[in-house]
Design a protein that fits this description.
single chain; alpha+beta; six-stranded antiparallel β-sheet; two-stranded antiparallel ribbon; 16 helices; 42% helix; binds adenosine monophosphate; binds magnesium ion
Length: 493
């Protein structure tokens, strides 16, 4: 490893405290990042750096070396974390095969964040992989995760992208890169599955206690804290997936190793945003059966939660039958919880402040008309109640016109006036999502033409998704219909 040419690297402001590296050693392997041949800091997220209490100027100077893997902060204790996972339904023992956790950064306001380098070389869990990542998928993760954050959806975030100056070899040769990922933690459903598969109850309890202490301290003294842990994770997943559904986000690879316990969206691979509303939408090249289709995300989250609950059975009660009864009861509440979160969000998308019996039907009818008319999910919601709607094809559907009348009648049955509804809707219905064709254009300009301007423009648009002056910008235009038919996303592995 090269030594740093910077005399005071701590000037960047990273303050690492590494609690995960103090857990039982079965949960990780000590692992330094591999050096990159010619690291170059391509992107630095200034806003995030400031939120984390970091010094942007120092990061600009030292980022290439430290966030590319060539130099190590003195207080970092890098590890690769072990986990397992059901990948498309099949169970595998996994782990960070191409990432290392540098440590947990403590912000000036005392918040704890994992700082992880993704694409930083081989680890004990790399199996046959090279431990590296290509630039394009790392830019994709940067763009989509920052868009999700701006949309108010819990997510890991992206601090930087450093190009390595090396090629990675997949179906072809691509420039390599390292993404610095920031997360509330990287504890996954798969982390619990890993401890469970080792059949080591003590390890499992240690992981569960750590998770409770780190994410849910309010249940530490509860009567059955492990049942409460399950309940918390169920609730966070229900809330998270509801938020995805409200903006048309398709994760694309909801394997249990890609589901974070603390309820953040994690592991952006073949993810994409839907244009035309269709619950069957799938873009991932490897999801041939549509397991992770847009409309299947809540049932799949539920399936994943069953896998999580199974790991907790030995902790919930010493009597396994009793554990199963408790876990089942909590799991069976998921669909109703999901529906409640989803409907609450959809009410806001329709400008509704209060609740009525018929609201679910009202929402479902709108979605039905959107699907029938190949209507753009984002733009239809954003145009409701505005002149713009009249320019859209769906407006010529007589059934939809009836629906509009029913909606207007529904609006009139609440205290708030129409202007208040529009304000609520403009805060809830984004004008701008990271549309696939724009994401691809920006990435290809950065990777193939070495020009960052389209990417920077896209980032500034998607980080202000509710902006009211964006209506006619190119960022709100759906692609030609033929684009989606052929569009495929890849895991980027
Ligand atoms: P993902 O599809 O990115 O969620 O990755 C699934 C598993 O494969 C994880 O354990 C990754 O660490 C591992 N993996 C993905 N790409 C590579 C790679 N290039 N080298 C080593 N391991 C990898
Ligand atoms: Mg993953």
């Amino acid at each position: 490893m090269k030594t740093s040419s910077y005399s005071a690297p701590e000037q960047s402001g990273f303050k690492f405290d590494n609690s995960y590296a103090k857990l039982a050693s079965k949960l990780y392997q000590k692992q330094k990042p591999e050096a990159a041949r010619n690291p170059n800091l391509l992107l630095l997220n200034h806003a995030l750096a400031k939120t984390l209490g970091l010094n942007v100027q120092a990061l600009e100077k030292e980022g290439a070396e430290y966030l590319g893997g060539n130099a190590l902060y003195a207080t970092a204790e890098p590890i690769a974390q072990a986990y397992a996972g059901h990948q498309f339904g099949g169970f595998n023992m996994l782990g960070d095969g191409r990432a290392v956790l540098l440590g947990e950064h403590i912000t000036p306001d005392n918040k704890r964040f994992d700082i992880q380098l993704k694409g930083s070389g081989r680890t004990a869990y790399s199996r046959s992989g090279d431990g590296r990542a290509a630039l394009a998928p790392m830019l994709r993760e940067y763009i989509i995760s920052e868009a999700m954050h701006a949309l108010g959806i819990p997510t890991t975030r992206s601090l930087a992208v450093v190009t390595t100056g090396e090629m990675v070899y997949r179906d072809d040769a691509y420039p390599g890169a390292v993404l610095t990922r920031v997360a509330s933690s990287h504890i996954r459903i798969g982390t619990f599955q890993y401890a469970s598969a080792l059949q080591d109850r003590q390890l499992l309890a240690e992981l569960a206690d750590y998770t409770i202490h780190r994410h849910f301290p309010e249940i530490a003294a509860a009567e059955n804290k492990y049942a409460r842990l399950l309940e918390k994770v169920i609730d966070l997943q229900a809330s998270l997936i509801a938020k995805w559904m409200q903006v048309g986000f398709i994760h694309g690879v909801m394997n249990t190793d890609n589901m974070s316990i603390c309820g953040e969206t994690i592991d952006y691979g073949p993810c994409a945003f839907m244009n035309n509303y269709d619950p069957g939408t799938v873009f991932s090249s490897i999801d041939s059966k549509g397991r992770y289709a847009f409309g299947n995300q809540a049932p799949i989250a539920h399936w994943n939660l069953y896998r999580f609950a199974e790991t907790l059975l030995p902790l919930i009660n010493t009597d396994e039958d009793q554990s199963i009864v408790t876990a089942k009861e909590l799991l069976e509440a998921f669909p109703a919880r999901f529906l409640a979160y989803w409907l609450a969000g959809m009410r806001h998308k329709l400008g509704l402040f209060n609740q009525e019996q018929g609201d679910l039907e009202l929402v479902e009818d709108l979605l039905m008309y959107m699907q029938k008319n190949n209507a753009d999910y984002t733009n239809t919601f954003r145009s409701l109640g505005k002149e713009l709607l009249k320019t859209m094809q769906i407006y010529h559907d007589a059934g939809f016109k009836n629906w509009l009348q029913a909606w207007e009648a529904r609006l009139s049955r609440q205290q708030e006036n129409f202007a208040q509804s529009l304000t609520l809707m403009d805060r809830t219905n984004p004008a701008i999502i990271p549309r696939n064709h724009l994401v691809e254009d920006a990435i290809s300009a950065a990777v193939d033409q070495q020009t960052l301007q389209p990417l920077e423009q896209l980032l500034s648009a998607i980080t202000a998704p509710y902006s009211t002056d964006a209506v006619h910008s190119k960022f709100t235009q759906p692609p030609e219909p033929s684009f989606d038919i052929h569009y495929k996303t890849f895991c980027g592995t």
